[in-house]
Design a protein that fits this description.
Layout: E1 4-10, E2 14-20, E3 26-33, E4 45-46, H1 48-65, E5 73-80, E6 85-89, E7 99-100, H2 108-115, H3 124-127, H4 136-146, H5 148-155, E8 159-163, H6 164-172, E9 179-181, H7 182-185, E10 191-192, E11 197-198, H8 200-206, E12 215-217, E13 220-225, E14 234-240, H9 241-248, E15 257-261, E16 265-272, E17 283-288, E18 296-303, H10 307-317, H11 326-331, E19 340-342, E20 360-362, H12 370-396, E21 403-406, H13 413-423, E22 427-430, H14 435-448, H15 454-458, E23 463-467, H16 473-490
Parallel strand pairs: 1-5, 5-14, 9-12, 15-21, 21-22
Antiparallel strand pairs: 1-2, 2-3, 4-7, 6-8, 10-11, 13-14, 15-16, 16-18, 17-18, 19-20, 22-23
Length: 495
């Protein structure tokens, strides 16, 4: 039996394919970026056809690098940017528009209308989510409202809708399978968290014909077979990227938590089989479901802009040539010079949920340099994470002893030390930092017998680096207070 497992990680800025062995070690990988399309301020789109092209390119690239073929893979798992919405033609398989990305804010007015007199928590009891531009269902509704012909075709059953996992599986299986897993379905505002099925009342209220929707499946289980360079390989795992990182970090016990530092920043706390509704601005979401077992839930704090801010320094301001240059530039100064950067480019996500907020750099004087800007940009991710952790502690009643971290930004040691200092708990990086792809591989391998139990996966986890907090408490409070002052300056801008 083949013991290698592939993972297709379709992220916000790139697509990659990784191959893992039974120890969870990387055998091969390939990665390509795709375009970020900005038609208007606040709008963010991707070309689904370009994503499909990148998908096949990285699959072929990773297999070729290790001289592998489809027969060497026991299974393939999928992980993906979550709330990004794709609508396509049921007959031709062609997208009817660009994908609307999770960062996109065009549904702000629609969400306000849907909230009506009930407010943004109108659907929270069923969905665990506030009405916000973040989620996928209203994005699809916006497309149908903007183009009456699309509404007509949708009502006639001629259109299909899904988050990016649905699009990827549809392509991998030769347009034969239209599914989504429970983690991605829980980000649409259309699934009932208790029944794990599409809710007819939610679909009617948000305005999405149920005929458009994919079938909801478990996170670990065979859904179809691949085609092309993945011919006959079972597609056996689907997890939204943040749930995949939780799974890859082997956070299987209630109280286990991880934080992923990618384009955005996302902290998840495993709450077990208990649905915990947040009172402090967090999301209640499905963490994963293995086969027909009971689902596992999580509390989540979602931050829209983290690594994307470093890309903005590179692409929009040009103060660094490569994203990796930001650490050296930030280290060129001793501290932030009282400069605070609140990157509310898509409004503020958890725990504030303020779509009217916009980015602010506060505290500028003639003393400030590009080094201070770079340092403030890195520190912004840590400050936002502190806000989320405080909300998580309040909701769960559990104080974290340490925080497991992953994602591209965890290579930045200045950021990781500042994060530990600001939280006052150790920050721990695993030996395999890219746990998102690993989690998808684990889900697929569990379904096909490569790994038998969750204990087998936990045995693979290893610690690479640990950062211990050294900052005095009074300095932690002073910095956090200044950050909160800067956050207040972002509010009510886009009204």
């Amino acid at each position: 039996m083949a013991e290698l497992v592939g993972a297709l990680d379709q992220g916000t800025t790139s697509t990659r394919f990784m191959v893992f062995d039974r120890t969870g070690s990387v055998v091969s990988h390939d990665q390509l970026e795709h375009r970020q399309i900005f038609p208007k301020p606040g709008w963010v789109e991707h070309d689904p056809q370009e994503i499909t092209e990148r998908m096949w390119q990285v699959v072929e690239g990773a297999l070729a690098k290790a001289s592998l073929t489809a027969s060497d893979l026991a299974a393939v798992g999928i992980t993906n940017q979550r709330e990004t919405a794709v609508v396509w033609d049921r007959t031709t398989g062609e997208p009817v528009a660009n994908a609307i990305v999770w960062q996109d804010t065009r549904t702000d007015e629609l969400c306000r209308r849907l909230a009506a007199d009930s407010g943004p928590d109108r659907f929270r009891a069923k969905t665990g989510l506030p009405l916000a531009t973040y989620f996928a269902g209203p994005k699809a509704r916006w497309l149908l409202d903007e183009q009456p012909e699309l509404r007509r075709r949708a009502e006639a059953g001629d259109l299909m809708f899904g988050t990016i996992d649905s699009w990827v599986v549809y392509q991998l299986t030769g347009r034969a399978v239209h599914v989504t897993d429970v983690t991605n379905a829980s980000r649409t505002m259309l699934m009932n968290l208790e029944t794990l099925d599409w809710d007819s009342e939610l679909c009617a209220e948000i305005g999405i014909p149920r005929s458009m929707l994919p079938s909801i499946v478990a996170s670990s289980g065979v859904v179809g077979e691949g085609t092309g360079p993945l011919a006959d390989v079972p597609i056996a795992g689907i997890l939204g990227d943040q749930q995949a990182a939780l799974f890859g970090q082997t956070c299987f016990a209630p109280g286990d938590a991880k934080n992923t530092y990618g384009t955005g920043c996302f902290m998840l706390l495993n709450t077990g089989t208990e649905l915990v509704h947040s009172r402090n601005g967090l999301l209640t979401t499905v963490a994963y479901r293995i086969g027909d077992q009971d689902p596992v839930y999580a509390l989540e704090g979602s931050i829209a802009i983290a690594g994307a801010l470093v890309q903005w320094l590179r692409d929009n301001l040009g103060i660094i040539e490569a994203s990796s240059d930001v650490e050296a530039l930030a280290r060129s100064v001793d501290d932030n010079g009282d400069v605070y950067f609140v990157p509310a480019f898509s409004g503020l996500f958890a725990p504030h949920w303020r779509a009217d907020a916009r980015g602010v750099v506060a505290g500028l004087t003639r003393f400030a340099t590009k080094g201070h800007i770079a340092r403030a940009a890195l520190e912004a991710t840590a400050f936002q994470t502190r806000e989320v952790l405080q909300a998580m502690n309040a909701d769960s009643g559990v104080d974290l002893n340490e925080l497991k971290v992953d994602g591209g930004m965890v290579e930045n040691e200045l950021l990781m030390q500042f994060q530990a200092d600001l939280l006052g708990v150790p920050v721990v990086r695993p030996t395999v930092a890219e746990t998102t792809a690993l989690g998808a591989a684990y889900a697929a391998g569990l379904a096909t017998g490569v790994w038998r139990t969750l204990d087998d996966l936990a045995a693979n986890w290893g610690e690479d680096r640990r950062w211990i907090p050294t900052m005095p408490e009074d300095e932690r409070i002073r910095l956090s207070t200044r950050w909160s002052q800067a956050v207040q300056r972002t509010l009510d801008w886009n009204t």
